[in-house]
Amino acid sequence: MPLKLEIVTPEARIFSDEVDSVVLPGYEGEMGVLPAHSNLVTTLLPGELRILKGGKTTEMAVGEGLVEVTGSMTRILTDVAIDADKIDEKAAEGAIARAQKTLSELKPGEHQEEVAAAMAAIQRATAHLGIKRKRRTV
Fold first, then answer.
1. DSSP letters spanning 12-80
2. Would the pLDDT of 133 be above 80?
3. Are residues 51 and 12 in the same domain?
4. Tens digits of per-residue pLDDT, 59-115?
5. Which residues span the domain enclosing 128?
6. From CA 79, how far away is CA 10, in angstroms rounded?
7. Residue 2 φ then ψ, to 5°
8. Among 1, 78, 98, 119, which residue is least crowded by beta carbons within 10 Å?
9. Which of 59, 84, 109 is the last residue of a domain?
């Protein structure tokens, strides 16, 4: 019995297919989902998502979001999902540099929304770099 997987961002449905399993970055670490998994809703953290289908693994970088698992369906709602092959390493490095510059210019205790946005940008870009560099060494 295959597992129906959907990955949806605000812009589009990125992925919709039947798969053997999916491993995703959750709040308490990596979480694997197989067909007939118990129902749950959990948070998704920026990191690497791996999809296994027919012995082939597809890797994606994902951002923050929510995961809904029902017995036969897993739906991932995330702010970003990029195939590992399409990650732009220079753009990710630039995003980290810009966010670090923003953080260095803010006074401690002020502009909490800007601090949170910069930290999220660093976390997301770091996840992208990790996946891209892992694929380059494999």
1. -EEEEEEESEEEEEETTEEEEE-TTPPPEEEEE-SEEEEEEETTEEEEEEE-SEEEEEETTEEEEEES-
2. no
3. yes
4. 898 989 999 999 889 999 998 898 878 878 788 888 888 888 888 887 777 778 888
5. 87-137
6. 6
7. -75, 165
8. 1
9. 84
pLDDT in tens, 10-33: 999 999 999 999 999 988 889 999
69 & 120 share domain: no
For residue 29, give the nearest of 44, 50, 41 by alpha carbon: 44
For residue 96, the surrounding DSSP H or E stretch is: helix 89-105
Q: What is the 3-state secondary structure (H, E, C) of 115-127?
A: HHHHHHHHHHHHH
